[in-house]
Amino acid sequence: MRTAILTLGLFFTSIGYTHAQLERKLENTNQPVDLIFHAPRHINLLTVEPLEKKTMHFAIMHTFGTLDGGIENLFGLDNGANIQFSFEFGLSDKLSLGAGRSSRDKFYNVYGRYLLLEQTQNNTIPLSMSFAGGAGIVSNPYSFLSADERPDFADRLAYFGQVMFARKFSNKVSLQVSPTLAYFVNPLPIYQIEGNQNLYLALGFSGKYKVTDRSSLTLQYIPNLNSDLRSNFGIGWDVEVGGHVFQMYFVTSQALNEQYLLAGGNGVPGEEFRLGFNVNRIFALGQRKRGKS
Amino acid sequence: MKILGFIAALFLSSVAFGQEFLTKNGEVTFLSKAPLNEFEGKSSLLNGLIDLDKNLLDFYVDLNTLKTGIGLRDSHMRENYLETDKFPFAEFTGKIDEKPNLQVGDRRSVKAVGTFKIHGVERDIEVLGYLTKLQNGKLELDASFDILLSDYKIPIPKLVFYELAEVQKVTIKATLTQKK
Protein backbone atom coordinates (compact mmCIF):
# COMPACT_ATOMS: atom_id res chain seq x y z
CA MET A 1 0.00 0.00 0.00
CA ARG A 2 2.77 2.37 0.96
CA THR A 3 4.69 1.76 -2.22
CA ALA A 4 1.51 2.26 -4.19
CA ILE A 5 0.94 5.66 -2.62
CA LEU A 6 4.58 6.54 -3.10
CA THR A 7 4.53 5.74 -6.79
CA LEU A 8 1.24 7.57 -7.15
CA GLY A 9 2.81 10.57 -5.46
CA LEU A 10 5.87 10.43 -7.67
CA PHE A 11 3.62 10.13 -10.69
CA PHE A 12 1.77 13.32 -9.78
CA THR A 13 4.90 15.32 -9.15
CA SER A 14 6.42 14.13 -12.38
CA ILE A 15 3.34 15.31 -14.26
CA GLY A 16 4.13 18.77 -12.99
CA TYR A 17 7.50 18.64 -14.73
CA THR A 18 6.66 16.96 -18.00
CA HIS A 19 3.96 19.55 -18.46
CA ALA A 20 6.55 22.27 -18.35
CA GLN A 21 6.14 23.40 -21.96
CA LEU A 22 2.98 25.05 -23.13
CA GLU A 23 0.67 23.01 -25.26
CA ARG A 24 0.59 24.38 -28.84
CA LYS A 25 -2.96 25.31 -29.72
CA LEU A 26 -4.35 26.92 -32.86
CA GLU A 27 -6.33 30.08 -32.10
CA ASN A 28 -8.91 29.15 -34.73
CA THR A 29 -9.20 25.48 -35.58
CA ASN A 30 -11.58 26.39 -38.41
CA GLN A 31 -9.02 28.52 -40.23
CA PRO A 32 -10.23 29.20 -43.78
CA VAL A 33 -8.02 28.09 -46.66
CA ASP A 34 -6.04 30.82 -48.37
CA LEU A 35 -6.47 31.85 -51.98
CA ILE A 36 -8.44 29.17 -53.75
CA PHE A 37 -7.74 31.36 -56.80
CA HIS A 38 -5.23 34.14 -57.29
CA ALA A 39 -7.85 36.86 -57.80
CA PRO A 40 -11.61 37.54 -57.82
CA ARG A 41 -11.40 36.96 -61.59
CA HIS A 42 -10.16 33.84 -63.27
CA ILE A 43 -9.74 34.30 -67.03
CA ASN A 44 -13.23 35.80 -67.58
CA LEU A 45 -15.31 34.31 -64.79
CA LEU A 46 -15.81 35.56 -61.25
CA THR A 47 -14.45 33.40 -58.46
CA VAL A 48 -15.38 32.76 -54.83
CA GLU A 49 -12.30 34.72 -53.76
CA PRO A 50 -13.82 37.37 -51.46
CA LEU A 51 -12.73 40.95 -50.96
CA GLU A 52 -11.81 42.05 -47.50
CA LYS A 53 -13.92 44.82 -46.01
CA LYS A 54 -12.86 48.24 -47.28
CA THR A 55 -10.77 46.95 -50.12
CA MET A 56 -11.33 47.57 -53.79
CA HIS A 57 -10.60 45.22 -56.62
CA PHE A 58 -9.73 46.91 -59.88
CA ALA A 59 -9.52 44.80 -63.00
CA ILE A 60 -8.70 45.72 -66.58
CA MET A 61 -9.47 42.93 -68.98
CA HIS A 62 -8.73 42.80 -72.70
CA THR A 63 -9.46 40.32 -75.42
CA PHE A 64 -8.11 40.89 -78.90
CA GLY A 65 -8.87 39.70 -82.43
CA THR A 66 -8.40 36.10 -83.54
CA LEU A 67 -4.89 34.74 -83.79
CA ASP A 68 -5.40 33.37 -87.32
CA GLY A 69 -4.54 36.74 -88.90
CA GLY A 70 -0.94 35.86 -88.09
CA ILE A 71 1.95 38.26 -87.79
CA GLU A 72 0.38 40.68 -90.27
CA ASN A 73 -2.24 41.57 -87.65
CA LEU A 74 0.19 40.83 -84.82
CA PHE A 75 -1.86 37.80 -83.86
CA GLY A 76 -5.06 39.74 -83.44
CA LEU A 77 -3.69 42.72 -81.52
CA ASP A 78 -4.42 44.99 -84.50
CA ASN A 79 -8.08 44.02 -84.50
CA GLY A 80 -9.94 46.13 -82.00
CA ALA A 81 -9.81 44.86 -78.45
CA ASN A 82 -12.76 44.42 -76.19
CA ILE A 83 -11.79 46.10 -72.95
CA GLN A 84 -13.54 45.91 -69.62
CA PHE A 85 -12.79 48.06 -66.62
CA SER A 86 -14.31 47.00 -63.36
CA PHE A 87 -14.25 48.16 -59.78
CA GLU A 88 -15.52 46.06 -56.93
CA PHE A 89 -15.78 47.24 -53.33
CA GLY A 90 -15.81 45.02 -50.27
CA LEU A 91 -18.67 46.21 -48.04
CA SER A 92 -17.91 43.44 -45.58
CA ASP A 93 -15.61 40.44 -45.65
CA LYS A 94 -18.37 38.55 -47.46
CA LEU A 95 -20.36 41.05 -49.51
CA SER A 96 -19.01 43.14 -52.34
CA LEU A 97 -20.56 45.37 -55.00
CA GLY A 98 -19.04 46.15 -58.35
CA ALA A 99 -19.50 47.95 -61.59
CA GLY A 100 -17.88 47.39 -64.94
CA ARG A 101 -17.95 48.58 -68.49
CA SER A 102 -17.10 46.54 -71.57
CA SER A 103 -16.39 48.36 -74.79
CA ARG A 104 -18.30 45.75 -76.79
CA ASP A 105 -21.74 47.39 -77.24
CA LYS A 106 -20.66 49.88 -74.54
CA PHE A 107 -22.13 47.56 -71.96
CA TYR A 108 -22.38 48.71 -68.34
CA ASN A 109 -22.81 46.12 -65.64
CA VAL A 110 -23.48 46.40 -61.92
CA TYR A 111 -23.13 43.30 -59.83
CA GLY A 112 -22.81 41.93 -56.34
CA ARG A 113 -21.11 38.93 -54.85
CA TYR A 114 -21.81 37.25 -51.53
CA LEU A 115 -19.66 34.58 -49.91
CA LEU A 116 -21.96 32.12 -48.16
CA LEU A 117 -19.51 29.37 -47.18
CA GLU A 118 -15.75 29.43 -46.83
CA GLN A 119 -13.69 26.26 -47.10
CA THR A 120 -11.71 25.50 -43.94
CA GLN A 121 -8.29 23.90 -43.63
CA ASN A 122 -9.63 21.14 -41.40
CA ASN A 123 -12.40 20.37 -43.93
CA THR A 124 -15.30 20.99 -41.56
CA ILE A 125 -16.50 23.08 -44.52
CA PRO A 126 -15.22 21.24 -47.60
CA LEU A 127 -15.90 23.97 -50.16
CA SER A 128 -16.50 27.65 -50.60
CA MET A 129 -19.77 28.87 -52.05
CA SER A 130 -20.66 32.29 -53.41
CA PHE A 131 -23.57 33.94 -55.15
CA ALA A 132 -23.25 36.62 -57.78
CA GLY A 133 -25.86 38.52 -59.67
CA GLY A 134 -25.94 41.58 -61.84
CA ALA A 135 -27.79 43.82 -64.22
CA GLY A 136 -26.37 45.43 -67.33
CA ILE A 137 -27.36 47.79 -70.07
CA VAL A 138 -26.23 48.25 -73.66
CA SER A 139 -25.43 51.95 -73.85
CA ASN A 140 -24.41 52.14 -77.51
CA PRO A 141 -26.51 55.02 -78.92
CA TYR A 142 -26.98 53.31 -82.31
CA SER A 143 -27.20 56.80 -83.77
CA PHE A 144 -26.88 55.35 -87.28
CA LEU A 145 -30.36 53.87 -86.86
CA SER A 146 -33.46 55.96 -87.27
CA ALA A 147 -35.08 56.97 -84.01
CA ASP A 148 -37.87 54.37 -84.14
CA GLU A 149 -35.43 51.54 -84.95
CA ARG A 150 -33.22 52.20 -81.95
CA PRO A 151 -33.71 49.84 -79.03
CA ASP A 152 -35.52 51.49 -76.16
CA PHE A 153 -34.38 51.34 -72.56
CA ALA A 154 -36.00 48.02 -71.62
CA ASP A 155 -34.69 46.32 -74.78
CA ARG A 156 -31.16 47.11 -73.70
CA LEU A 157 -31.20 45.31 -70.37
CA ALA A 158 -29.55 42.00 -69.62
CA TYR A 159 -29.17 40.20 -66.31
CA PHE A 160 -27.10 37.38 -64.90
CA GLY A 161 -27.13 35.14 -61.87
CA GLN A 162 -24.47 32.73 -60.75
CA VAL A 163 -23.74 30.29 -57.95
CA MET A 164 -20.10 29.34 -57.47
CA PHE A 165 -18.83 26.21 -55.76
CA ALA A 166 -15.09 26.03 -55.34
CA ARG A 167 -12.66 23.76 -53.61
CA LYS A 168 -8.95 23.91 -53.08
CA PHE A 169 -8.03 20.24 -53.37
CA SER A 170 -4.40 20.78 -52.52
CA ASN A 171 -1.91 23.60 -52.55
CA LYS A 172 -1.69 23.10 -56.29
CA VAL A 173 -5.16 22.27 -57.54
CA SER A 174 -8.35 24.32 -57.23
CA LEU A 175 -11.60 23.86 -59.11
CA GLN A 176 -14.76 25.88 -59.36
CA VAL A 177 -18.11 25.02 -60.88
CA SER A 178 -20.42 27.96 -61.56
CA PRO A 179 -23.95 27.31 -62.81
CA THR A 180 -24.84 30.57 -64.53
CA LEU A 181 -27.87 32.07 -66.21
CA ALA A 182 -28.09 35.13 -68.38
CA TYR A 183 -31.28 36.83 -69.50
CA PHE A 184 -31.53 39.33 -72.33
CA VAL A 185 -34.82 41.24 -72.27
CA ASN A 186 -34.65 41.61 -76.04
CA PRO A 187 -31.70 39.89 -77.77
CA LEU A 188 -31.66 42.14 -80.82
CA PRO A 189 -29.50 41.11 -83.80
CA ILE A 190 -27.77 44.47 -83.62
CA TYR A 191 -26.07 43.43 -80.40
CA GLN A 192 -22.76 41.67 -80.79
CA ILE A 193 -24.12 38.37 -79.59
CA GLU A 194 -24.73 35.25 -81.60
CA GLY A 195 -27.65 33.97 -79.58
CA ASN A 196 -31.25 34.98 -80.31
CA GLN A 197 -32.97 33.59 -77.27
CA ASN A 198 -33.71 35.41 -74.04
CA LEU A 199 -32.50 32.92 -71.50
CA TYR A 200 -29.11 31.24 -71.52
CA LEU A 201 -28.00 28.56 -69.11
CA ALA A 202 -24.44 27.39 -68.77
CA LEU A 203 -22.01 25.72 -66.42
CA GLY A 204 -18.77 27.52 -65.82
CA PHE A 205 -15.71 25.48 -64.94
CA SER A 206 -12.59 27.19 -63.66
CA GLY A 207 -9.42 25.33 -62.88
CA LYS A 208 -6.10 26.33 -61.41
CA TYR A 209 -2.92 24.32 -61.28
CA LYS A 210 -0.19 26.03 -59.32
CA VAL A 211 3.19 25.63 -60.98
CA THR A 212 5.32 27.88 -58.79
CA ASP A 213 4.45 29.78 -55.60
CA ARG A 214 3.34 32.73 -57.66
CA SER A 215 2.11 31.39 -60.97
CA SER A 216 -0.49 28.95 -62.15
CA LEU A 217 -1.81 27.32 -65.24
CA THR A 218 -5.48 28.28 -65.63
CA LEU A 219 -8.42 26.77 -67.47
CA GLN A 220 -11.92 27.92 -68.28
CA TYR A 221 -14.69 25.92 -69.88
CA ILE A 222 -18.28 27.17 -70.13
CA PRO A 223 -20.57 24.64 -71.80
CA ASN A 224 -23.93 26.06 -72.85
CA LEU A 225 -26.85 24.00 -71.60
CA ASN A 226 -29.81 25.32 -73.59
CA SER A 227 -28.46 26.78 -76.81
CA ASP A 228 -26.65 25.55 -79.91
CA LEU A 229 -23.88 28.07 -79.42
CA ARG A 230 -20.37 26.74 -79.17
CA SER A 231 -18.99 26.53 -75.66
CA ASN A 232 -16.37 28.86 -74.33
CA PHE A 233 -12.90 27.49 -73.74
CA GLY A 234 -9.89 29.27 -72.36
CA ILE A 235 -6.41 28.35 -71.19
CA GLY A 236 -3.97 30.70 -69.55
CA TRP A 237 -1.31 31.65 -67.07
CA ASP A 238 -1.70 33.65 -63.83
CA VAL A 239 1.25 35.44 -62.30
CA GLU A 240 1.35 37.27 -58.98
CA VAL A 241 3.80 40.14 -58.96
CA GLY A 242 3.80 42.16 -55.77
CA GLY A 243 0.20 43.18 -55.27
CA HIS A 244 -0.82 42.57 -58.89
CA VAL A 245 -2.16 39.47 -60.50
CA PHE A 246 -1.55 39.32 -64.26
CA GLN A 247 -3.60 36.87 -66.27
CA MET A 248 -2.70 35.97 -69.85
CA TYR A 249 -4.83 33.55 -71.79
CA PHE A 250 -6.12 32.22 -75.07
CA VAL A 251 -9.88 32.15 -75.26
CA THR A 252 -12.57 31.49 -77.86
CA SER A 253 -14.64 34.62 -77.26
CA GLN A 254 -14.13 38.33 -76.92
CA ALA A 255 -16.85 38.56 -74.28
CA LEU A 256 -15.77 39.75 -70.86
CA ASN A 257 -18.95 39.91 -68.80
CA GLU A 258 -21.27 37.10 -67.80
CA GLN A 259 -24.18 38.03 -70.07
CA TYR A 260 -22.02 38.19 -73.18
CA LEU A 261 -19.99 35.13 -72.21
CA LEU A 262 -23.18 33.08 -72.34
CA ALA A 263 -24.93 34.71 -75.31
CA GLY A 264 -21.98 35.96 -77.29
CA GLY A 265 -20.98 32.81 -79.13
CA ASN A 266 -17.53 31.32 -79.49
CA GLY A 267 -14.98 30.45 -82.11
CA VAL A 268 -13.62 26.96 -82.63
CA PRO A 269 -10.99 26.23 -79.98
CA GLY A 270 -7.55 26.11 -81.53
CA GLU A 271 -8.62 27.75 -84.78
CA GLU A 272 -10.15 30.95 -83.50
CA PHE A 273 -8.33 31.58 -80.30
CA ARG A 274 -7.87 35.12 -79.14
CA LEU A 275 -5.25 36.52 -76.88
CA GLY A 276 -6.54 37.89 -73.59
CA PHE A 277 -4.90 39.83 -70.84
CA ASN A 278 -6.15 40.89 -67.38
CA VAL A 279 -4.56 43.04 -64.74
CA ASN A 280 -5.96 42.65 -61.22
CA ARG A 281 -5.10 44.88 -58.33
CA ILE A 282 -6.48 45.03 -54.80
CA PHE A 283 -6.38 48.39 -53.06
CA ALA A 284 -6.84 48.90 -49.36
CA LEU A 285 -9.10 51.86 -48.67
CA GLY A 286 -9.15 54.03 -45.58
CA GLN A 287 -6.16 52.36 -43.95
CA ARG A 288 -2.95 53.86 -42.74
CA LYS A 289 -0.58 54.66 -45.54
CA ARG A 290 2.09 52.37 -44.21
CA GLY A 291 -0.18 49.43 -44.74
CA LYS A 292 -0.19 49.89 -48.50
CA SER A 293 2.02 47.67 -50.54
CA MET B 1 0.26 8.04 6.60
CA LYS B 2 3.41 9.98 7.32
CA ILE B 3 4.62 9.34 3.84
CA LEU B 4 1.32 10.44 2.39
CA GLY B 5 1.58 13.68 4.30
CA PHE B 6 5.14 14.13 3.10
CA ILE B 7 4.15 13.61 -0.51
CA ALA B 8 1.22 15.98 -0.17
CA ALA B 9 3.54 18.59 1.29
CA LEU B 10 6.03 18.08 -1.53
CA PHE B 11 3.31 18.37 -4.11
CA LEU B 12 1.79 21.44 -2.53
CA SER B 13 5.11 23.15 -2.00
CA SER B 14 5.94 23.05 -5.66
CA VAL B 15 2.58 24.66 -6.36
CA ALA B 16 2.60 27.19 -3.56
CA PHE B 17 6.07 28.52 -4.25
CA GLY B 18 5.86 28.17 -8.02
CA GLN B 19 7.30 31.04 -9.96
CA GLU B 20 5.37 30.37 -13.13
CA PHE B 21 4.21 33.36 -15.12
CA LEU B 22 1.82 32.99 -18.02
CA THR B 23 0.25 35.04 -20.79
CA LYS B 24 -2.06 34.35 -23.68
CA ASN B 25 -2.18 37.82 -25.17
CA GLY B 26 1.33 39.07 -25.55
CA GLU B 27 2.18 41.22 -28.53
CA VAL B 28 4.56 40.14 -31.23
CA THR B 29 5.58 42.17 -34.26
CA PHE B 30 7.55 41.18 -37.34
CA LEU B 31 8.95 44.32 -38.97
CA SER B 32 10.04 44.13 -42.60
CA LYS B 33 12.09 47.10 -43.80
CA ALA B 34 12.76 46.68 -47.49
CA PRO B 35 14.05 49.51 -49.74
CA LEU B 36 10.64 50.12 -51.30
CA ASN B 37 8.29 49.02 -48.64
CA GLU B 38 8.08 48.86 -44.88
CA PHE B 39 5.34 46.96 -43.14
CA GLU B 40 4.75 44.92 -40.04
CA GLY B 41 2.86 41.79 -39.18
CA LYS B 42 1.28 41.94 -35.76
CA SER B 43 -0.40 39.53 -33.41
CA SER B 44 -1.70 40.08 -29.89
CA LEU B 45 -2.09 36.40 -29.21
CA LEU B 46 1.40 35.46 -28.11
CA ASN B 47 1.31 32.61 -25.60
CA GLY B 48 4.12 32.59 -23.10
CA LEU B 49 5.48 30.93 -20.00
CA ILE B 50 8.32 32.10 -17.81
CA ASP B 51 9.17 29.74 -14.99
CA LEU B 52 11.77 31.35 -12.77
CA ASP B 53 12.12 28.25 -10.57
CA LYS B 54 12.93 25.86 -13.33
CA ASN B 55 14.47 28.58 -15.47
CA LEU B 56 12.26 27.81 -18.42
CA LEU B 57 11.07 30.13 -21.15
CA ASP B 58 8.46 28.94 -23.59
CA PHE B 59 6.67 31.15 -26.12
CA TYR B 60 4.62 30.48 -29.21
CA VAL B 61 2.27 32.33 -31.53
CA ASP B 62 -0.20 31.01 -34.06
CA LEU B 63 1.07 32.65 -37.27
CA ASN B 64 -2.44 32.60 -38.70
CA THR B 65 -3.18 35.47 -36.31
CA LEU B 66 -0.47 37.67 -37.82
CA LYS B 67 -2.00 40.66 -39.62
CA THR B 68 -0.24 43.14 -41.89
CA GLY B 69 -3.22 45.39 -42.58
CA ILE B 70 -3.87 44.01 -46.06
CA GLY B 71 -5.81 40.78 -46.32
CA LEU B 72 -4.30 39.72 -49.63
CA ARG B 73 -0.78 40.25 -48.30
CA ASP B 74 -1.71 38.17 -45.25
CA SER B 75 -2.88 35.37 -47.54
CA HIS B 76 0.34 35.50 -49.54
CA MET B 77 2.37 35.54 -46.35
CA ARG B 78 0.58 32.47 -45.02
CA GLU B 79 0.54 30.54 -48.27
CA ASN B 80 3.78 31.43 -50.05
CA TYR B 81 6.20 32.25 -47.27
CA LEU B 82 5.28 30.87 -43.86
CA GLU B 83 3.22 27.92 -45.16
CA THR B 84 1.04 28.05 -42.07
CA ASP B 85 -1.03 25.06 -43.13
CA LYS B 86 2.05 22.93 -42.46
CA PHE B 87 3.89 25.09 -39.92
CA PRO B 88 1.32 27.12 -37.99
CA PHE B 89 3.52 28.23 -35.09
CA ALA B 90 6.55 30.35 -34.39
CA GLU B 91 8.10 29.03 -31.17
CA PHE B 92 10.88 29.82 -28.75
CA THR B 93 11.93 27.50 -25.95
CA GLY B 94 14.95 28.22 -23.81
CA LYS B 95 16.26 29.60 -20.57
CA ILE B 96 17.63 32.76 -19.09
CA ASP B 97 21.40 32.79 -19.32
CA GLU B 98 21.99 34.34 -15.91
CA LYS B 99 18.89 34.16 -13.83
CA PRO B 100 18.28 37.57 -12.26
CA ASN B 101 17.09 37.96 -8.71
CA LEU B 102 14.12 40.19 -9.38
CA GLN B 103 12.55 42.46 -6.84
CA VAL B 104 9.28 44.31 -7.34
CA GLY B 105 9.88 47.37 -9.49
CA ASP B 106 13.19 46.12 -10.94
CA ARG B 107 13.80 46.32 -14.66
CA ARG B 108 16.68 44.03 -15.52
CA SER B 109 18.31 43.28 -18.79
CA VAL B 110 18.39 39.57 -19.44
CA LYS B 111 19.78 37.29 -22.08
CA ALA B 112 17.79 34.28 -23.18
CA VAL B 113 19.32 31.35 -25.00
CA GLY B 114 17.24 28.72 -26.70
CA THR B 115 15.71 27.38 -29.84
CA PHE B 116 13.62 29.42 -32.22
CA LYS B 117 11.44 27.53 -34.65
CA ILE B 118 9.51 28.84 -37.63
CA HIS B 119 8.67 27.31 -41.02
CA GLY B 120 9.70 23.93 -39.64
CA VAL B 121 13.32 25.02 -39.11
CA GLU B 122 14.92 25.14 -35.67
CA ARG B 123 17.89 27.32 -34.81
CA ASP B 124 19.67 28.18 -31.60
CA ILE B 125 19.47 31.88 -30.92
CA GLU B 126 20.21 34.44 -28.24
CA VAL B 127 17.69 37.11 -27.37
CA LEU B 128 18.33 40.24 -25.38
CA GLY B 129 15.46 41.73 -23.47
CA TYR B 130 14.21 43.25 -20.28
CA LEU B 131 12.26 41.71 -17.45
CA THR B 132 10.36 43.90 -15.04
CA LYS B 133 8.68 42.64 -11.94
CA LEU B 134 5.49 44.49 -11.27
CA GLN B 135 3.26 44.50 -8.25
CA ASN B 136 0.42 42.02 -7.92
CA GLY B 137 2.53 39.19 -9.23
CA LYS B 138 3.05 40.34 -12.78
CA LEU B 139 6.12 40.12 -14.93
CA GLU B 140 6.71 42.32 -17.94
CA LEU B 141 8.91 41.26 -20.83
CA ASP B 142 10.28 43.31 -23.72
CA ALA B 143 12.62 41.71 -26.17
CA SER B 144 13.62 41.95 -29.76
CA PHE B 145 15.78 39.99 -32.13
CA ASP B 146 16.44 39.71 -35.84
CA ILE B 147 15.84 36.68 -37.95
CA LEU B 148 17.13 36.04 -41.44
CA LEU B 149 14.41 34.52 -43.61
CA SER B 150 16.95 32.42 -45.53
CA ASP B 151 18.05 30.81 -42.24
CA TYR B 152 14.57 29.36 -42.01
CA LYS B 153 14.28 28.29 -45.64
CA ILE B 154 11.88 31.08 -46.55
CA PRO B 155 13.06 32.26 -49.96
CA ILE B 156 12.36 35.76 -51.26
CA PRO B 157 11.80 35.82 -55.00
CA LYS B 158 13.84 38.43 -56.85
CA LEU B 159 10.67 40.20 -57.97
CA VAL B 160 9.68 41.14 -54.44
CA PHE B 161 13.19 41.69 -53.12
CA TYR B 162 12.56 45.43 -52.83
CA GLU B 163 9.26 44.91 -51.04
CA LEU B 164 10.07 42.20 -48.52
CA ALA B 165 13.12 42.42 -46.28
CA GLU B 166 15.45 39.49 -45.76
CA VAL B 167 15.98 40.57 -42.15
CA GLN B 168 12.85 40.58 -40.04
CA LYS B 169 12.95 42.37 -36.71
CA VAL B 170 10.87 40.50 -34.17
CA THR B 171 9.66 42.46 -31.16
CA ILE B 172 7.90 40.94 -28.19
CA LYS B 173 6.02 42.73 -25.47
CA ALA B 174 4.08 40.78 -22.92
CA THR B 175 2.76 41.05 -19.41
CA LEU B 176 2.71 37.68 -17.71
CA THR B 177 0.60 36.85 -14.70
CA GLN B 178 1.77 34.57 -11.90
CA LYS B 179 0.09 31.20 -11.92
CA LYS B 180 -1.79 30.54 -8.70
Automatic annotation (TrEMBL), chain A:
Q: Locate the DUF5777 domain: which residues? A: 37-283
- Give the top-rank taxon of the lineage listed in the UniProt record for this protein: Bacteria
Instruction: Give one Pfam family.
Output: DUF5777
Task: List the InterPro entries hit by this protein, alphabetically.
Answer: DUF5777 (IPR045916)
Name of the molecule in the record: DUF5777 domain-containing protein
Q: Which classification does the entry list for the species? A: Bacteria, Pseudomonadati, Bacteroidota, Cytophagia, Cytophagales
TrEMBL record, chain B:
Domain Lipid/polyisoprenoid-binding YceI-like, chain residue ranges per copy: 20-179
Signal sequence annotation: 1-18
Pfam families documented for this protein: YceI
Question: Keywords in UniProt for this one?
Answer: Signal
Q: Which PANTHER family match?
A: PROTEIN YCEI
- Please state what the protein is called: YceI-like domain-containing protein
The species this protein belongs to is Algoriphagus boritolerans DSM 17298 = JCM 18970
Tell me the lineage of the source organism: Bacteria, Pseudomonadati, Bacteroidota, Cytophagia, Cytophagales
